[in-house]
Amino acid sequence: MKLKFRSYWSKYIQLYKRGILGIIAFIGITVVIISILATIASRGMGVIFNEVIARQTMMRGTITVASLSATPWGTISFEDLQWADDDGHQLMTVPSGKIRVNMWDVITRNFKASAIRGIELNDAVIVVDLDDDNRVDFVPASPDINKPLSEVEQRPKAPKKTTLERQEELGKKVRNFNWNGQHIDAIVKLSDCQLEIFQKNRHYVMNNVNARFDIDTNRAIRMNMTTGKFGGTAIGDGLTLEGRIDLKDVLKHRMPTLDMKLNIYGVDPASLGFGDSIHDKMTLLTAVTGDINRPFASGRVTMPILRIPALTFENVVGDVTYQDGILDFKEVYANVFGGKLKAKGVYNLDTRAYELAGVATDLDSSMALKTPDFSVPVSANLNFSSKGQPKDMEVWGDFTSGAGRYILIPIQSITGHFHNQGRHLSFFDVKVHTSVTTISTDALHIDNGELTLGPLNITSNGGSNFAIYDESTFGELGHTMDGIKNDMAQANQNMKRAQDNSRSMNQEGIKPPSDAKGVLDDAKEAIKGFSDSLKSIKIRLRFDEV
Questions:
Q1: Beta bridge partners of 360
Q2: pLDDT (mean) for 492-510
Q3: What sign for the dihedral angle of Cα 266, 269, 270, 276?
Q4: How far apart are alpha carbons 445 and 451 in whole angstroms?
Q5: Which uninterrupted H or E stretch holds 63?
Q6: Residue 373: helix, strand or coil by DSSP?
Q7: Cα(146)–Cα(338) distance, rounded to whole angstroms?
Q8: CA separation for the pair 212, 188 (Å, rounded)
């Protein structure tokens, strides 16, 4: 019995070993065959590349490379790829890159778009033309591609033979790139590329573009892209784009839909037409949805600081939406001169025209005028407008104040209107109300930092009216007010000196020196001089009654 069992076990072991060896041999032979076929294919890669390019129908024109090398497993490396249209215009230049193909498709000569599994482009110059439906086409670069970003044209003429022009000329859709519904399942990577984009009359040049596109035309395109600085219709520090384009049912004439995050950093307001000298950086953080031909974006706008003539806003933050070239700003808040601003408005990306309106409350006049002498809380209605040119920018509105003071003169309220364009700031219908008088003027101007004051009309609460027209009178009034300030400053110093001396003497038990009374007398004289100065103003105005 034991002998039979050993006999069966020996035969089993022998069959098992033969089976294992057979499997190993089969795998080895298969690997050798595949390697031989792959090596043959890789050695003839130039022929295969030319045949693939000749058979493909998506890219119109001629594609050439300076050199090719390949691995047995389907990775083709190339240098100096050039793509030109039928007229010889350069559409794309790629110094180096890789194409990953399905080697079985190559071996079986199944040359379809699905044979390409990956594309990597390094340091490429890529120019994209988007039509009204945001379909992608590739076109020749403009001269702006080699200019500094600050000099890129905002709305240049589109490249020769744009999509729309070709449709008008030929009466049919002639494109350099046409998908034609072929199935593409590939990963496209861009490394440190330069990208130029034309879309309607918008134009952008972007540097240091790095991106990954996972493309499955039966399902979706997933993308992740970052850029360096960009110029053109807008100038900024960079952007990030992440999300997906849903391609389901596209062949049934349904538009692709978007679900993406688009963040744009360091946008220069001057490049958008918000004044020539406004360069404080703006950031937009948005979510993009809707059909690809009519995307809708909503998100947030932020600015650490925004400086325009006569106004400085801090910590600007608000809600913004975008569609059809219109930026709609809603619920925008900012700090300004110790108070708060709430604003809203619209901006047209194509015409660069805008209308913005806001309400500012609890502004500190001493911060705005940079002097502690004039202190009242101010509220204002602000309006900003432009027809599209930076020099068109206008700021206007009205203001009112609460109770405060000018030096030591109590002020009950101030009301008025203002208008600012360029470096010309005007105030009109200004009324300053005190307990005894109302001072009004229609002529207060600041041109290039210089103040011009027109006639002042002064009405006392008792009914007497006064008018000051002579500019020399303004000078006299200014000297008088300067004297008041100097007298008050001297009085404060004398009083402080007297108090310090008195405090020291009390601590030491010493009798006051003979000049202590003189110090107090000086202080009293300074205060009396201040009072007389105020009286002189009232008396002079009373004598100027008309």
A1: 341, 380
A2: 57
A3: negative
A4: 6
A5: strand 62-64
A6: coil
A7: 46
A8: 6
What's the CA gap between 317 and 283, in Å, rounded?
Answer: 10
Mean pLDDT is lowest, of 184-198, 306-320, 336-350, 433-447, for 433-447
Q: What is the pLDDT of residues 475-492, one digit of tens each?
A: 555 555 555 556 556 655
φ/ψ (deg, to 5) at 363: -75, 145
Sign of the torsion formed by the C-alpha atoms of 112, 113, 118 and 124: positive
Angle between helices 471-508 and 516-543 (to 10 degrees): 160
Task: Count Cα neighbours of 234 within 13 Å in the Cβ-side half-sphere.
Answer: 22
Q: Which residues contact 454 (CB under 8 A, 6 or more apart)?
A: 441, 442, 443, 444, 445
Rounded to whole angstroms, how far apart are CA atoms 164 and 350? Answer: 18
pLDDT at 226: 97
Q: What is the DSSP letter of 100?
A: E
Give me the residues paired with residue 357 across strands: 344, 383
The pLDDT confidence band at residue 530, using thresholds 50, 70 and 90, is very low
- Rg from Cα positions in the chain: 39
DSSP for 120-154, written as a single string:
EEES-EEEEEE-TT--EEE-PPPGGGGS-GGGS-S
What does the chain come to in residues? 546
Is residue 41 scored above 60 in pLDDT?
A: no
* Euclidean distance between CA atoms 75 and 120, whole angstroms: 11
Alpha carbon distance 108, 41 (integer Å): 10
485, amino acid identity: K
- pLDDT at position 100 is 83
% of the chain beyond a pLDDT of 70: 63
Instruction: Find where tokens 């939406």 sit.
Output: 321
Strand pairing category for 185-199 and 125-130: parallel
Q: Please tell me the distance from the alpha carbon of residue 366 to that of residue 377, in angstroms, as a whole number.
A: 9
- Measure the CA–CA gap between 379 and 361, rounded to whole angstroms: 4
Nearest to 355 by CA among 319, 321, 392, 324: 392
| Angle subtended at Cα 193 by Cα 189 and Cα 197, rounded to the nearest 5 degrees | 100
Q: Where are the beta strands (DSSP E) in 236-324?
A: 238-246, 257-267, 282-291, 296-308, 311-323
What is the pLDDT at residue 13? 57
The overall pTM is greater than 0.90:
no
What's the distance, CA 436 to chain centroid? 51
Report the alpha-carbon distance of residue 68 to residue 52 in Å, rounded. Answer: 14
Which residue from 97, 91, 191, 201 is spatially nearest to 145, judged by alpha carbons?
91
Q: Is the dihedral of CA 434, 438, 441, 442 positive or negative?
A: positive
Residue whose token pair is 């806003």: 313
Q: What is the DSSP letter of 159?
A: P
Q: Which residue has the tokens 């596209």?
A: 250
What is the CB neighbour count within 10 angstroms for residue 482? 11
Structure letter (DSSP) for residue 247: -
- Asked if pLDDT for residue 395 goes beyond 80, the answer is yes
In this structure, what token pair is assigned to residue 484? 């008041």
- Outline where 348-470 has alpha helix (H): 365-369
